[in-house]
Amino acid sequence: MTNAKAKVLCVDDDPDLLLINSSLLQLAGHQVLAASNGNECLAIVRQENPDLVLLDVMLPDISGYDVCKRIKTDPELQDTFVILISGMQISSESQIKGLETGADGYIVRPISTHEFLARVQAMIRIKHTEMALRRSMERYQMLVETMNEGLGVLDKNGIITFVNEKICDMMGCAKDEIIGRPATDFIDGNDLNKYKEHFEAHRQGVFIPFELTCVRKDGQKVYTIISPRPMLDDRGNFTGAFAVISDITTRRDAEEAIRKLNEELEQRVIERTRQLEAVVEELEGEIIERKRVEDALKENEEKFSAITITATDAVILMNDKGKISYWNPAAEKIFGYTNEEALEKELHLLIVPEEYYKAFQEGFRFFQATGKGPVIGKTLEFMAVRKDGTVFPIEISISVINVRGKWEAVGIIRDITERKLDEKTFIQYAERLQTLSSRLIEVQEAERRLIAQELHDEIGQSLTGLKLYLENIAALPAEEMTSKLGDILTLVQELMSKLRNMSLDLRPSMLDDLGLLPALLWHFERYITQTNVHVRFNHNGLNMRFNTDIETAAYRIVQEALTNVARHAHVSEVKVLVTANQDTLEIHVEDNGRGFDYDAINDSANTAGIKWMQERLSLLGGYLKIDSAPGEGTRLSARIPVKNKSAERWTEQCAK
Questions:
Q1: Which residues pair with 9 in a beta bridge?
Q2: Per-residue confidence (pLDDT) for residue 650, from 0 to 100
Q3: Cβ count near 32 (within 10 Å)
Q4: How far apart are CA 373 and CA 400, in angstroms?
Q5: Cβ contact 604:612 at 8 Å
Q6: pTM for the model
Q7: Distance (Å, whole) CA 177 – CA 168
Q8: At 395, phi and psi to the nearest 5?
Q9: CA torsion angle for 304, 307, 311, 314 (degrees, to 10)?
């Protein structure tokens, strides 16, 4: 080990011994101060704050014992190491007396030069090691108490021995209300068996992250992810575990809100469907489914390293010059800079826009002078920038420590892009719900108008004619009535045919009786007759029945797509391809007509039909893609999962 250099004060009333000791220490590379009595010694110690004092026991004014005691009882000097040295007071009692005054060592003369230097050097190493340990402990404590995640420690029996402030916030308890109690006191009863199984696995050396529901002091549930790590003794025996605990209650709440939104959407669809069923009895419902000092120093460094390495948030230390001094793996992942690239760089490397950093510089100058600032101890949100230039939202909390009179800052940074996306998704769901509700009302009113018009124009007229005809023949003789019955039967047959066509327009019965393929073929035949647009139809895998919701959605999407072709494409032919396998059903409708600017149309208010198709597919776990441009025709593609599982992202086909 390289000898540590230090500032040493030699105190001796013998000038020759003082000169010898000072020269030896200077030759060894140390900075040496000298004093010849006790009062002079105390004055130099207070002024120079040396690392080590070599103090003669016999001094002309104050005994070395008293000088040592004064040094060790002064709060500002108690960290100064003192070695008593004497050639007269050499008895065991004298040495014991010296150590009882607080001395860190006792040297008896005569002593060889090598032993003298070795003992001084050993004491200096201990001094430096203790200072490093203290600094490490301060940094470790600061990190643990300011990290965004909870940190807890259990002994081998599952008793809580440590928690940080984050866990106290999670559970709504003070530390003394948590430490010393079994962890099971804070776990929801439904998750106790899960916790016990995982803790038993910890004893066997298996540490896997898992979700756990905890209960706050006020009874509220807290949903968490537990990321455990083992604690082992020198023989490798399990002595307990510590874990990083992430609060995912907000995420769970967002998921629950989306689930309720989906349920509300489904209920509204069901209610609208039932309203239509009340008007037309034949219309069936649709239901949508969805080691001493050095060992201690090493242990603390390992703990610090373990926490920062396993942390999912970026942990950044900044020195008093505003330069980055520590950069954990999560920071590398979030910002894209390696540890070598980030160290000794200024924080503006991460901050965007530039005016944010100017404000930060002003705040940092105030922080350098006082160790205080308006953002210390708070959690803030602002925009950051990665190495590749990507701007993204972050959440940051900053805390400070004083190390040997210099301030250092620690920042815990979390990428909140996903949370912001969840908020955006929630808003989009609300907008889609409003659009779909409007569309359902529009469809309902249109169906009612159509039914009313058909009943008045077609059925009503036929019934009126039948009534008049019956009134006319009522006055005829019996033999003439018989000859008129054929005309009455003809009118009744026409009336039945019109009622049947109305029923088929609302929902073809063969879709329920025979399945998707016959219903599509029947619809194509009627469509060609009504629009003079020829349908070139190809299919594969439709020789089986599907879930009612899937068959209905497929039929309605084809129906809506063909209606749009007839209204807008101005073509004489359209291609339809429907294929299915054990996983998915796909629909492709293509024409070479006028086409349209899809982005412009999709941003307008006149896209109820497209949004209706998107919502119907979304509720079934499917996806819709439309490719179109003015003069280049239109291609509609849809995919529906056949079995009740989430559809895979249609990345390759739907990527822009």
A1: 33, 53
A2: 33
A3: 19
A4: 10
A5: no
A6: 0.33
A7: 9
A8: -120, 130
A9: -10
Beta strands in 483-597 (DSSP E): 534-540, 573-580, 584-591
Encode pLDDT of 399-437 as tens digits. 776 656 666 777 788 888 887 776 666 666 656 656 655
pLDDT at residue 649, rounded to an integer = 37
pLDDT category at 165 given cuts 50, 70, 90 is confident
CA distance 185 to 266: 40
Q: State how far the Cα of 510 lies from the Cα of 284, in Å rounded to an integer.
A: 13
| CA gap 62, 57 in Å, rounded | 9
Domains of the chain: 7-130 (3.40.50.2300), 147-247 (3.30.450.20), 312-415 (3.30.450.20), 508-656 (3.30.565.10)
What's the confidence (pLDDT) of residue 283?
45
What DSSP element (H or E) covers 643? none
Average pLDDT of span 235-240: 84
DSSP H or E stretch at residue 352: none
- In sequence order, the 6+-apart residues with CB closer than 8 A to the CB of 378 are 397, 398
Q: Is the pLDDT of residue 135 over 90?
A: no
Q: Find, among 220, 149, 168, the residue nearest to 379 by Cα.
A: 149
Angle, CA 218 vertex, CA 213 and CA 220 arms, to 5° = 35
Alpha helices in 336-477 (DSSP H): 339-342, 354-370, 417-454, 461-474
Tokens coding 569: 């494409």
Residues, the chain: 656
Q: Report pLDDT digits (tens) over 458-493.
A: 665 666 666 666 666 766 666 666 666 666 667 666
Q: What is the per-residue burial (b if ≥16 Cβ within 10 Å, else e) of 295-316?
A: eebeebeebbeebbeebbbbbb
pLDDT one-digit tens code per residue, 598-619:
877 765 545 667 877 887 888 8
Give the strands of the sheet with 379-385, arranged side by side.
Answer: 324-327, 314-318, 406-415, 391-403, 379-385
Beta strands at 210-215 and 324-327: parallel, antiparallel or unpaired = unpaired
* Confidence at residue 654, expressed as pLDDT on a 0 to 100 scale: 37
